[in-house]
Design goal:
This protein has 3 helices and 3 strands; from the N terminus they run αββαβα. The longest helix is centred in the C-terminal third of the chain and has 15 residues. The mean pLDDT is about 95. The protein is globular and about 45 Å long. The chain is of the alpha/beta class and about 120 residues long. The protein starts with 16 loop residues before the first helix and ends with a helix. α2 links the parallel β2 and β3. The chain has a 3-stranded parallel beta sheet, with helices on one face.
Protein backbone atom coordinates (compact mmCIF):
# COMPACT_ATOMS: atom_id res chain seq x y z
CA UNK A 1 0.00 0.00 0.00
CA UNK A 2 2.70 2.54 0.94
CA UNK A 3 4.69 1.59 -2.16
CA UNK A 4 1.75 2.60 -4.34
CA UNK A 5 1.86 6.01 -2.63
CA UNK A 6 5.51 6.37 -3.65
CA UNK A 7 7.00 5.56 -0.28
CA UNK A 8 9.89 3.21 0.37
CA UNK A 9 10.30 0.97 3.39
CA UNK A 10 13.21 -0.51 5.33
CA UNK A 11 12.34 -3.48 7.54
CA UNK A 12 14.22 -3.79 10.83
CA UNK A 13 14.57 -7.56 11.42
CA UNK A 14 16.59 -9.32 14.09
CA UNK A 15 15.50 -12.97 13.83
CA UNK A 16 14.11 -15.36 11.22
CA UNK A 17 16.14 -14.29 8.18
CA UNK A 18 14.32 -16.60 5.76
CA UNK A 19 10.95 -15.08 6.69
CA UNK A 20 12.20 -11.53 6.13
CA UNK A 21 13.96 -12.47 2.89
CA UNK A 22 10.65 -13.86 1.66
CA UNK A 23 8.74 -10.73 2.71
CA UNK A 24 11.21 -8.43 0.96
CA UNK A 25 11.20 -10.59 -2.17
CA UNK A 26 7.39 -10.63 -2.35
CA UNK A 27 7.09 -6.87 -1.83
CA UNK A 28 9.74 -6.02 -4.41
CA UNK A 29 8.29 -8.54 -6.89
CA UNK A 30 4.92 -6.80 -6.68
CA UNK A 31 6.36 -3.27 -6.74
CA UNK A 32 10.09 -3.17 -7.47
CA UNK A 33 12.17 -0.89 -5.27
CA UNK A 34 9.61 -0.51 -2.50
CA UNK A 35 12.02 -2.10 -0.01
CA UNK A 36 15.24 -0.23 -0.70
CA UNK A 37 17.24 -1.24 2.37
CA UNK A 38 17.28 -3.38 5.49
CA UNK A 39 18.07 -2.14 8.99
CA UNK A 40 19.49 -5.29 10.57
CA UNK A 41 19.47 -5.29 14.36
CA UNK A 42 22.88 -6.47 15.58
CA UNK A 43 22.13 -5.43 19.18
CA UNK A 44 19.86 -6.57 22.03
CA UNK A 45 17.65 -9.37 20.64
CA UNK A 46 19.67 -9.34 17.42
CA UNK A 47 23.01 -9.34 19.21
CA UNK A 48 25.41 -11.52 17.31
CA UNK A 49 23.75 -10.92 13.93
CA UNK A 50 26.20 -10.47 11.10
CA UNK A 51 25.03 -8.76 7.89
CA UNK A 52 27.48 -10.95 5.96
CA UNK A 53 26.11 -14.25 7.19
CA UNK A 54 22.54 -15.42 6.68
CA UNK A 55 21.02 -12.05 5.83
CA UNK A 56 21.23 -11.92 2.03
CA UNK A 57 18.54 -9.77 0.45
CA UNK A 58 19.99 -9.83 -3.06
CA UNK A 59 20.43 -6.31 -4.38
CA UNK A 60 18.74 -4.73 -1.35
CA UNK A 61 21.51 -3.36 0.90
CA UNK A 62 21.74 -4.33 4.56
CA UNK A 63 22.63 -1.63 7.12
CA UNK A 64 23.58 -3.18 10.48
CA UNK A 65 22.80 -1.36 13.69
CA UNK A 66 24.81 -1.63 16.89
CA UNK A 67 24.37 -0.27 20.42
CA UNK A 68 26.69 2.16 22.16
CA UNK A 69 26.16 0.10 25.32
CA UNK A 70 28.30 -2.61 23.69
CA UNK A 71 30.74 -0.65 21.51
CA UNK A 72 32.96 2.43 21.67
CA UNK A 73 33.30 4.57 18.54
CA UNK A 74 36.63 2.88 17.77
CA UNK A 75 35.08 -0.56 18.06
CA UNK A 76 32.19 0.49 15.82
CA UNK A 77 34.65 1.65 13.16
CA UNK A 78 36.49 -1.68 13.32
CA UNK A 79 33.23 -3.66 13.17
CA UNK A 80 31.84 -1.66 10.23
CA UNK A 81 35.16 -1.88 8.41
CA UNK A 82 35.22 -5.65 8.80
CA UNK A 83 31.69 -5.99 7.47
CA UNK A 84 32.45 -3.59 4.62
CA UNK A 85 35.47 -5.68 3.59
CA UNK A 86 33.64 -8.98 4.04
CA UNK A 87 30.37 -8.25 2.24
CA UNK A 88 30.36 -4.63 1.11
CA UNK A 89 27.96 -2.97 3.55
CA UNK A 90 27.44 0.67 2.64
CA UNK A 91 26.61 2.02 6.09
CA UNK A 92 25.08 1.29 9.44
CA UNK A 93 23.30 2.91 12.35
CA UNK A 94 23.44 3.30 16.11
CA UNK A 95 20.83 2.29 18.64
CA UNK A 96 19.73 4.16 20.90
CA UNK A 97 20.42 7.74 19.80
CA UNK A 98 19.04 9.12 23.08
CA UNK A 99 21.93 7.42 24.90
CA UNK A 100 24.52 9.71 23.36
CA UNK A 101 22.75 12.78 22.01
CA UNK A 102 24.12 15.99 23.50
CA UNK A 103 27.33 14.50 24.91
CA UNK A 104 29.50 14.70 21.78
CA UNK A 105 29.29 11.02 20.94
CA UNK A 106 26.77 11.33 18.07
CA UNK A 107 29.46 12.86 15.88
CA UNK A 108 32.03 10.28 17.04
CA UNK A 109 29.75 7.36 16.18
CA UNK A 110 28.75 8.89 12.83
CA UNK A 111 32.41 9.42 11.95
CA UNK A 112 33.22 5.85 13.02
CA UNK A 113 30.52 4.39 10.77
CA UNK A 114 31.52 6.59 7.82
CA UNK A 115 35.22 5.77 8.16
CA UNK A 116 34.40 2.09 8.59
CA UNK A 117 32.65 1.83 5.24
CA UNK A 118 35.12 3.86 3.16
Amino acid sequence: MVGKLGYHVMPDPYVDASYWQSVVSRINTQLPGTVDGIHLQAYAGGGGNNPCSGWNFGKVPVFPGVWDKNYTPGQVQTLMSGWHKECGILGGYMWIYDDFVGNGFAKKYATAINKGVK
